[in-house]
């Protein structure tokens, strides 16, 4: 257990207000992931399903020359089960760097399987590059991975994919030269991908920079680098992002970083947990977690007791259905409840204040309820479990138009639906 003002800042800035008071004394626990995951082999590139109950990573678990993708399930005692190979994703060659999208419907990986781009080496021999492949969740298993187009996959190595919306991040370096690794970004336009461009300085510099990952809002970018000034070899860093501009580069600090190598950090926002990799002495990389002990979930308790809850801290842009980032903590509590209670269905009801026209408020309340629904879906909640409605100004808690009354009237209701 450690105290880290900076890590507290990371958890809060990543879109989650975890602490209500005494932030500097809040404990953050950094430890090897629990269960049957870490071995004498390398465990690398962790990614979690939206409910944080299934972990994917890659490893070489036998005497073969190639790596495979594995998965493990979270058991009731908090331990992770013995990993199993994911047959539909693996080939006879290297399969690496799995990444699962926020909604759980898309998986990306890196592989040098048959069909990957060939490259002529200086020795005259032909090598096989690692390319990025995409797979879709089909309800019970993943679809056969398909290579991304030549705008992404080249004779160089492409690995460590990360997708947020239509923005794809990945690592690229010349064949056999990982010391020249840089992070690239490409935007999807329909069914095509724009030509990738390297991220700007100070993210990419003269050193090796790998394995970038966004937080859920795209306001923080995490990555690993072996630049000078760190604690060891590769360290983990974060940098703020706003309107296409990056600022305030920071090392994640002691506790996360050590004298060894750290890489490939991902943030599971709903469970408020970082998962990352650390090179352990006398063996290869293992998977670690950094988390804050779970606190009392008032929202979950209210839903269990009252079967409904009304929240006035779901914030939107003025006269708009666009959610503000400040809304993520209560919404993630709703997401967590729905992931933990798979059979529950829910109605989302939007309410406005009594100012403005009746017609506009009715439309706005329905649009805001739909916006909340879309957020829950983006975190892996099945759309079939959710209904929406908008009451506009018809059911005010306080029939007044002053600002305090209006704030209380502008609320979002969550009601459990009896099956």
TrEMBL record:
Residues 304-419 form the OmpA-like domain. Residues 400-413 have a biased composition (Basic and acidic residues). It comes from the Bacteria. SUPFAM superfamilies: DPP6 N-terminal domain-like, OmpA-like. The keyword Signal applies. Residues 385-413 are annotated as: Disordered. Pfam families: OmpA (PF00691), PD40 (PF07676). Residues 1-22 form the signal peptide. It is found in: Cell outer membrane. Its main location: membrane. Keywords: Cell outer membrane, Membrane, Signal. This is OmpA-like domain-containing protein.
């Amino acid at each position: 257990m450690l105290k880290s003002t900076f890590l507290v800042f990371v958890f809060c800035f990543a879109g989650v207000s975890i602490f209500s008071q005494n932030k500097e004394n809040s404990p953050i626990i950094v430890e090897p992931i629990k269960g049957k995951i870490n071995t004498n082999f390398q465990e690398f590139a962790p990614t979690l399903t939206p409910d944080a109950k299934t972990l994917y990573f890659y490893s070489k678990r036998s005497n073969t020359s190639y790596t495979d993708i594995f998965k493990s399930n979270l058991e009731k005692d908090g331990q992770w089960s013995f990993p199993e190979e994911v047959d539909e994703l693996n080939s006879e060659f290297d399969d690496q760097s799995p990444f699962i999208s926020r909604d759980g419907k898309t998986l990306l990986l890196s592989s040098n399987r048959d069909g990957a781009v060939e490259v002529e080496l200086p020795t005259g021999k032909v090598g096989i590059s690692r390319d990025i492949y995409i797979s879709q969740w089909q309800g019970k298993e993943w679809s056969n991975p398909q290579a991304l187009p030549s705008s992404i996959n080249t004779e160089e190595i492409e690995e460590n994919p990360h997708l947020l919306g239509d923005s794809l991040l990945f690592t690229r370096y010349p064949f056999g030269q990982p010391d020249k690794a840089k992070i690239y970004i490409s935007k999807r336009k329909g069914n095509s991908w724009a030509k990738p461009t390297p991220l700007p300085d100070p993210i990419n510099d003269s050193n090796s920079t790998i394995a970038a990952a966004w937080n859920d809002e795209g306001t923080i970018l995490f990555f690993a680098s072996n630049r000078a000034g760190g604690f060891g070899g590769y360290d983990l860093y974060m940098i703020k992002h706003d309107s296409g501009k990056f600022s305030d580069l920071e090392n994640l600090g002691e506790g996360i970083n050590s004298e060894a190598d750290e890489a490939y950090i991902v943030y599971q926002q709903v469970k408020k947990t970082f998962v990352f990799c650390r090179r352990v002495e006398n063996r290869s990389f293992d998977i670690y977690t950094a988390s804050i002990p779970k606190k009392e979930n008032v929202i979950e308790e209210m839903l269990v007791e009252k079967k409904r809850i009304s929240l006035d801290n779901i914030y939107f842009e003025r006269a708009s259905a666009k959610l503000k980032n400040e809304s993520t903590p209560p919404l993630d509590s709703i997401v967590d409840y729905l992931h933990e209670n798979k059979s529950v269905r829910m109605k989302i009801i939007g309410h406005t204040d009594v100012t403005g026209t009746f017609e506009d408020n009715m439309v706005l309340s329905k649009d805001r309820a739909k916006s909340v629904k879309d957020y829950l879906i983006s975190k892996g909640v099945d759309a079939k479990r959710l209904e929406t409605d908008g009451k506009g100004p018809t059911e005010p808690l306080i029939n007044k138009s002053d600002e305090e009354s209006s704030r209380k009237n502008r609320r979002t209701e969550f009601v459990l639906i009896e099956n």
